[in-house]
Write a structure and sequence with these properties.
alpha+beta; 13% helix; 5-stranded antiparallel sheet; single chain
Length: 358
């Protein structure tokens, strides 16, 4: 919760402006100053991840009021944020007022709270399926059952850094603020895809390649050659299960007659998709609830899309999107640079809508 009378712009040339990597100043002479119109204000670019539209607006600071997991209220003075122009909210669910920054920056929400309250710079994210509520928990706390047991047995993989900024609104020469993981191979129905392995690693000079995690992407996007390999193997494995392919429905490249797909505990009973990580025994597995999306009464499609080239920076080969993260418990630990991830919570007879702190 942000106040009104306590709002102050972040001025050009200040330490707060440097920490935020501000790239310029804006001038506006309304009195009293309001978000979006302040004088001598540190400014930066902002990117709408859905439309690709880029805006430029001032940075401000205000009192952030929030609740602990025990429902005690706290406040953070001088909390930095950027004015959210309406064009930067196009494509976001109504009535969204803005986006929380969880990237690897000094002004992200978790970094600010870790500094203010001396808690670990760690957060747990549990994205619910459509129409349900989920939770974001910052710091380190115990969870309710069965989530504590699930947390204790998470698979882990290193979070790696791309040495090149991947977005045009990041400062050139800086490490990317995005979260990357090291995918070594992809399996569909237990069969490894024949891929150009150079696409799976990050090019240290150009920043191209690799695998990032972005909740703002609806579905996982893949480099064209990876996408085609995935489609071909999935269609083949689906046919072996008696699943009938039908005409594709954009933006999806493979769709199927839902009447030929049976249902399991984890959603549609379709071939499993695994992102194999640092070893053959560590993999992020996606079941039918995360790989199939219904687009019509009798049509379901493979919920992966071909990723377009990035016109504002390096092109990431695989971007894991929000649909694939639904109903999985994810723990981002920035201190140890690790990602912990669960299997589908549906296997544990629960979902992200039940995720709570103890």
């Amino acid at each position: 919760m942000i106040g009104a009378s306590s709002y102050r712009p972040i001025l050009c040339g200040t330490q707060q402006c440097r920490i935020a990597n501000g790239v310029g100043c804006v001038f506006c002479f309304l009195s009293p100053p309001v978000p979006g119109c302040t004088n001598n204000t540190c400014s930066d670019y902002a990117l709408n991840p859905y439309s690709g539209t880029q805006g430029y607006s001032g940075l401000g600071q205000d009192v952030l009021r929030l609740y602990s997991t025990r429902r005690d209220q706290y406040k953070v003075n001088n909390f930095p944020f950027q004015f959210s122009d309406p064009v930067l909210r196009e494509g976001l669910p109504s009535p969204t007022a803005g986006v929380i920054a969880l990237g690897r920056t000094r002004i992200s929400l978790q970094a600010q709270l870790a500094s203010a309250f001396k808690i670990p710079q760690k957060f747990a994210l549990c994205i619910p399926s459509s129409g349900n509520d989920g939770n974001l928990i910052i710091g380190e706390v115990a969870y309710t059952k069965p989530f504590q047991n699930i947390s204790d047995s998470l698979s882990t993989t290193p979070l790696i850094r791309n040495p090149v900024s991947t977005s045009g609104n990041e400062v050139i020469g800086n490490l990317s603020i995005a979260y990357f993981i090291n995918v070594k191979s992809i399996k569909v129905g237990g069969t490894s895809l024949a891929l150009n392995n150079t696409l799976l690693s990050i090019n240290k000079k150009t920043g191209d390649g690799g695998t990032s995690i972005r909740t703002v992407r609806g579905y996982t996007s893949l480099h064209r050659s990876i996408y085609r390999a995935l489609i071909n193997q999935f269609v083949k494995a689906a046919a072996n299960k008696g699943i009938k392919r039908v005409a594709s429905v954009a933006p999806f490249g493979a769709c199927f007659d839902s009447k030929t797909i049976t249902t399991s505990k984890t959603g549609p009973d379709v071939p499993l998709i695994d992102l194999v990580l640092q070893s053959k025994t560590v993999y992020w597995r996606f079941y039918g609830s995360n790989t199939m999306v219904r687009v019509g009464n009798d049509v379901m499609c493979l919920a992966f899309v071909e990723g377009p080239p990035n016109i504002t920076g390096p092109t990431t080969s695989i971007v894991v999107g929000g649909y694939q993260m639904e109903n999985s418990l994810l723990e981002f630990d920035e201190a140890s640079s690790t990602l912990g991830f669960s299997s589908s919570l549906l296997l544990h007879d629960t979902s992200c809508s039940q995720f709570r702190a103890a």
